Amino acid sequence: MLVSIHEAVPGPAVFRARVAAAEESRMRADAHVRAVVVPPLNLSSHGIDPPPVNYR
């Protein structure tokens, strides 16, 4: 099956759109993880120091 060069190699606009979509989904996932993970670790008001958390 022959695939044209235009289908096989996406143009710069398509590439930029894919990168932007990937960045956006990654930032959304990061925000979701922070929203889920950070509040339970907020224990200093109870006199409990949470262990250090390395996100990256």
Instruction: Give the proportion of residues in helices.
Output: 40-55%
Q: Total number of β-strand segments?
A: 0
Strand content: under 5%
Report on the biggest sheet: none
Descriptive notes:
The protein is mostly helical and 56 residues long. It is 54% helix and 0% strand. The chain has 2 helices and no strands. It is rod-shaped and about 65 Å long.
Write the topology of this structure.
Elements: H1 5-8, H2 12-37
What is the compact description of this entry?
By secondary structure, this protein is an all-alpha fold.
Which keywords apply here?
single chain; 56 residues; mainly alpha; rod-shaped
